[in-house]
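Why do we care about 3D structure at all? Because function follows from shape, and shape follows, mostly, from sequence. That is the central idea of this module. The next example makes it concrete: a single protein chain, its amino acid sequence, and then its structure expressed as tokens.
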Amino acid sequence: MATTSTAAPPRKWWQVPRPLQKVFDTFPLLAYDVNALPARAQSATSGDLPTLYVFSTEEEALLGAPSFNPSCLKWQAFLKLAGVKFQILPSTNHASPTGALPFILPARSSPTDVPSPIPSSKLHDYALKYGTSNPPEVSALRLDAYQALLDVPIRNAWLQALYRDPQYIDLLDRFYITPASSSYWVRGALRHQLRRAAETEIRKTGPGGAASTALSLLVDEHSVYRAAVKALEALATLLSESKTGWFFGAETPTIFDASVFAYTHLMLKYMSDAEGEVEGEKDFILASRKLGIMVRSAGSGELEQHHRRLFELLWLADSNAELLDTKARGNKLLQVQLQA
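And the structure:
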């Protein structure tokens, strides 16, 4: 007598296996909300001033000094250009609700108010909405063309110098390694991780600015710096054509001026010899691997002059008027942080 068996229906190729499906049924997948801000962030936020969270030290943040991170410094400068009054606090990417700095926490309207953080992608609109002055707009076509010089060759040179060049290892430790941990082993692992991440970012675009077709194991630092020198020369040439001293001939600084300043300030402050030294020929400039020298040597010194003007406009012009207020707010913030 023949026996018949009911064949199981064919399983579709995308179907989850039954044992795994039982696990999913028992522990369904959940989508979690973004990380909440630390309690310290809410308590330290002023009731009348927004708080910009950036890479900085406690001391420099209390003084409102420029951040040592290019992305943070760009938005710090642009908010000041737009006339937004704010205070800054030091933070890290891990403490950011969006996973990256900078972000701004609006002022609280009441002691129980919990404002939502605003990420860097929305800081431009925030500055135009809440600032007392509107920086001039730049044609998107022109802006994109020259922004690429900052986003690729100049950024690559910054990554190469800070994260991979042995002469700046102390600077890297001071900015990102030492504040992160007191453990020798953790610091070593973090240093290696940041170095590899910088290499990956440089290889993505290639030293010349175009996408690299072959990801070599080693980064050609000379090609990286050579591309940066050409980019800085192009920016200096563009600036020399302006009758106002600001990019694109704008009457007042634009967001692009802030973007350029974010790199030139850090390069001149941290990666340069003493002012007044003779830089020499282009071969010497490349061999020195000092980005500040590259900035000074670009064109006829237009970028250094541009940096000086913007720094004086944003930080020196109001330093005396706000000195007492800054110290008062700094003491108040310090007390709150110690109590948190």
